[in-house]
Specification:
Strand 1 and strand 2 form a beta hairpin. The strands form three sheets. Strands 3, 4, 5, 6, 9, 10 and 11 form a seven-stranded mixed β-sheet that branches. Strands 1-2 form a two-stranded antiparallel ribbon. 42% of the residues lie in helices and 22% in strands. It is an alpha/beta fold. It has three domains: 78 residues, Arc Repressor Mutant, subunit A (Orthogonal Bundle), CATH 1.10.10.10; 112 residues, Periplasmic binding protein-like II (D-Maltodextrin-Binding Protein, domain 2, 3-Layer(aba) Sandwich); 101 residues, D-Maltodextrin-Binding Protein, domain 2, CATH 3.40.190.
């Protein structure tokens, strides 16, 4: 079977429709369909079936798509091994980040990568409304995700998950707030405060729901904002308290302080998600190493982007 046609089958498994595969591979839907039909003839078994107005993979198609991933991984592994003998990591690596991870990790990572001639990283960012970061992995070499652990969809897609760092999410409040005198706060301390929250589908909102569950009382959310900077400004103005990440929240002379939250799990894990074939590329591994180095510095208290 033709390896390029196997890759189209894999893309169909990842993206869910011929139209999406065509757009991603710069082909027409008709050309993709023809290639898939040719692959079926080569395989001698039905790989797709009608599903509504589109098509879906049969059980045999899904198995062959998994084989396509193994083939692509083996090819990338061989090329990476050859690269190690031939030259230092080279080429372009695409990286997708969410804003706070970008602030913490990207500047230092790019400074480190600049020391490797011939290697470049093209970075993009998405806001915190992404519900499943794994859906973005077909379009980027590396996708940074925040979560409380490894998500089932990450396993289902066979992704390589590289944990980079853990970050506490703290309670932010005005510096003059009575609770600022405490070293840590509990759900009972904060439930009756006015809250500056985040949109309902954002990860931080899950912590507020846990506070409500522990206390058995609803939180009074006065405003909701997706941007952490706006939340900080609202808190500094005395309009409520909020949930903000420890390493990127501006404290000190900004008029706000943060305190750890007890009795409720408020830690997020920042991980890199990579398709297994792309993880074999020497250039991708070099970028992952640079991200790990920067994450370790941030956890050790080094300001983002500093040596």
């Amino acid at each position: 079977m033709d390896i390029r046609r196997l890759e189209l089958l894999r893309e169909l498994a990842e993206r869910g429709s011929v139209t999406a595969v065509a757009a991603a591979t710069h082909r027409t839907p008709s050309a993709v369909s023809q290639q898939l039909k040719q692959l079926e003839r080569e395989a001698g078994i039905a790989l797709t079936e009608r599903a509504g107005r589109g098509i879906a993979l049969t059980a045999a198609g899904r198995e062959l798509a998994r084989t396509a991933t193994e083939v692509a991984t083996a090819i990338e592994r061989a090329e990476a091994l050859w690269d190690e003998y031939q030259r230092t990591p080279q080429g372009e690596v695409s990286l997708l980040v969410f804003p706070t991870a970008g602030r913490m990790l990207v500047p230092g990572m790019l400074k480190s990568i600049a020391e490797t001639p011939g290697l470049s990283v093209v970075c993009s960012d998405r806001d915190g409304s992404v519900s499943d970061y794994s859906e973005l992995t077909p379009d980027f070499d590396i996708v940074l995700a925040d979560s409380s652990g490894v998500m089932p969809s990450w396993r289902d897609r066979g992704l390589l998950v590289v944990p980079l760092m853990r970050e506490r999410l703290d309670i932010a409040m005005p510096a003059a707030h009575p609770l600022a005198a405490k070293r840590a706060v509990t759900p009972a301390d904060v439930i009756d405060e006015p809250w500056v929250g985040v949109p309902h589908d954002y990860p931080y909102d899950a912590i507020l729901k846990q506070i409500e569950a522990v206390t058995g009382r609803p939180a009074r959310v006065v405003q909701r904002f997706a941007d952490n900077g706006i939340v900080e400004a609202m808190v500094a103005a005395g309009l409520g308290i909020g949930i903000l990440p420890r390493f990127t929240t501006h404290t000190g002379d900004t008029g706000i302080v943060t305190r750890p939250l007890e009795e409720v799990r408020s830690t997020r894990i920042i991980s890199a998600l990579i398709r297994p074939d792309r993880a074999e590329r020497h250039s991708v591994r070099r970028v992952i190493d640079a991200l790990r180095e920067q994450a370790a510095k941030v956890e050790a208290g080094v300001a983002p982007g500093k040596a």
